[in-house]
Design goal:
This protein is an alpha+beta fold. The protein is built from 8 helices and 5 strands.
C-alpha cells in the first residue's frame, strides 16, 4: 500500500507526538555538545559517540517518517531481494549479501571488495533517506552500484565490510507486516506499548548482515554477532533514544525477552 507523504497524524492518536520527536532531537543535540569535549580521548570513544549519534539521527528520521505516514514505522525488507522492488513504500534499506553469508563463517574483506556492488545495501532507495539526509530518494535500478549513501548510515569502526555495505544499522524486522506480529500497515506508533523499551534499530557486526533487518534470535548468545563499542552495543528505541547495552543484556533481549523488547504490539 502506497501512503502519501503529505498525510498527517490522525487527530485521535495518543502515542508519541511531533513535539516529543522535536524534544528528543534537541536532547540528542544537547548530549552531543556534552560529549564532544571527550570525543578525542581515544579513537574508539570518538567512533562510538559518532556511531550512536548516527543511530539516533536515523531513529528520529524513522519517527518523523511515521508521522507523515499514518504513524506507520518503516520496515526492513523480508529478505535481501524483496527490498529491491522500488515500489515498496516502507523499506528502511534494501540489499545486502543475503544467502552468500554462511552462518558462523566470516566472509573475507577481499570477498567483499570483489563483490562491492552486489553486497552494497542501498540506503538511498529506502523510505527514510530524505528524512535522514535531506536528499531525494533514488528510484533508479539497484544493480548499477550507486554510491550515494550518506555517512549517517555508517559506523567508523566497521572497516572495509561496513564501508562496502554502506548501511551498518539494522531495523527490528518485526515491524514488517509479513512476520505476523503487526497489522497490514506494519507497526503503528500510537499503539506500541512502552516505546522506550521497544527496539527500533540495532547494530550487527558487518559480517552477519545479510540485509538491513534484524530478527530477534539472530546470533543470540555471542557478542561477536553485534558491533561492540567501548560504550556497549548500541540500540535505538521507538521513543527515539539510544543507549549502549552490555553483551549480557543484549543476549537476554534477543533470546528470553523478545516480546518485551521487540514485539511492537505486546508489553
Amino acid at each position: 500500500m502506497n501512503i502519501s507523504p503529505t498525510e498527517s497524524k490522525p487527530a485521535n492518536a495518543s502515542g508519541l507526538t511531533r513535539l516529543d520527536v522535536v524534544t528528543a532531537m534537541g536532547s540528542v543535540a544537547l548530549l552531543l555538545v556534552c560529549f564532544l569535549p571527550w570525543a578525542g580521548q581515544t579513537s574508539t570513544t570518538s567512533n562510538s559517540i559518532l556511531c550512536r549519534s548516527n543511530m539516533g539521527r536515523l531513529s528520529l528520521a524513522c519517527l518523523v517518517y511515521a508521522y507523515d505516514n499514518e504513524l506507520c514505522l518503516p520496515w526492513a525488507p523480508s529478505d535481501n531481494m524483496s527490498g529491491r522492488n522500488l515500489a515498496t513504500p516502507q523499506v528502511f534499506a534494501p540489499g545486502g549479501p543475503g544467502t552468500n553469508l554462511v552462518v558462523g563463517t566470516e566472509i573475507s574483506d577481499s570477498n567483499y571488495a570483489t563483490n562491492a556492488d552486489l553486497y552494497a545495501i542501498h540506503s538511498e532507495s529506502g523510505s527514510i533517506y530524505w528524512y535522514a539526509t535531506g536528499n531525494r530518494k533514488s528510484y533508479f535500478p539497484l544493480w548499477t552500484g550507486y554510491k550515494r549513501s550518506s555517512t549517517i548510515y555508517r559506523c567508523p569502526d566497521t572497516g572495509i565490510k561496513g564501508e562496502i555495505l554502506r548501511v551498518n544499522y539494522s531495523i527490528n524486522r518485526w515491524t514488517h507486516p509479513g512476520f505476523g506480529k503487526v497489522g497490514p500497515l506494519g507497526a503503528v506508533l500510537d499503539v506500541v506499548p512502552n516505546p522506550n523499551e521497544k527496539v527500533l534499530l540495532t547494530q550487527l557486526a558487518p559480517w552477519v548482515m545479510a540485509d538491513a533487518g534484524f530478527t530477534p534470535g539472530e546470533g543470540a548468545g555471542t557478542n561477536t554477532a553485534f558491533q561492540l563499542h567501548d560504550t556497549g552495543i548500541p540500540f535505538a528505541f521507538m521513543d527515539g533514544h539510544v543507549e549502549g547495552v552490555s553483551g549480557a543484556k543484549a543476549w537476554r533481549m534477543t533470546t528470553n525477552e523478545t516480546d518485551r523488547y521487540f514485539h511492537p504490539a505486546r508489553r
